[in-house]
Specification:
alpha/beta, Aminopeptidase, seven-stranded mixed beta sheet, four-stranded antiparallel beta sheet, 13 strands
Amino acid sequence: MRHVFWLVFLPALAVGCGTGSVSVDVVEPTVTLFADDDASARVESTTTVVPAAILAALDPTELPAPRSEAPGVVILEGIAAPVTASSVDGWAVTTPCGSDRDGAAPAPISALVALDPAGDARTVPGSLALTRNEAIAEATRSRLVAAGIETLVTRTAGADLAASYRREAAAASGALVVVSIATVEGGAATGTVPALEVVHPAADESGRRLAGLVHAAVAPVVGELSVPWPADVEPGVRAVLNQRGDDYFAMLREPMDAARVVLHLPVSLDAASAVANQQNRRLIADALAEAIAEHLVSDREGSGFVAPPEVVRNAPISDASAACVDPLAVMAELADD
């Protein structure tokens, strides 16, 4: 059965996930959700730690390098800003609202992998969803960096960035692998099986292979969490288009010389607590890191591919009149004061 989802792409909002539910995000994160001693957030899991066979045996000298022609990014206030010009005297970047900013420090960096904490049209900066997704991204980054794989995270949970800007930053970093992590609040109807959907760009074989590896690694981990899961997407690996024939997720639009996927996992309140639990999110991060490493050093395809290989979900045109709040411009003004 085909489901139709509605999403408004606002310039200053995160990438859409189209779960069609009422948001339960709040502006201020509930810190106790992530506390190790928080009994309400702890859900027992029989999943053992991912063996990480690829990462354990990885020889960093055999890894590909980030794309050499990419200009790099500068990490400012936790935001990966794409470099537009550089010289011996410094660099220039474009801010999220299109302004220019220059400087000499920190130095521009490149990365082999870009991890993108994502949300949906209802997600606000500092929300539980973005905080949860940033935590998973940071845990995954730590695992990859420890194995010698240069990795960056596109933003902190408090940064209000359009997916198009995060996509530009990932491209500027030279990354060969880009993974958006979107565990977002889902609908009221629940089931016992997580509706994990790993979406790749249409007609992109590299992204499709990465999606299969991510699904094969992450699905067993979240499947062991005995909690109610929203049942509002069709799980599996596929491309998702909007009614205009573009990729539904903004991070996957526009050509890029990188394998890109969106790890889309709707969560209920109980499932959100389970995923946010430190032990469980470490398991998810280990599985995701293993899948990324396997994509970089092998030709295996993974699993989870479903029919039809493409579905269409309605996504209204973005509101061009919406104001853009520029976090980097604001930070620059504060620094000047």
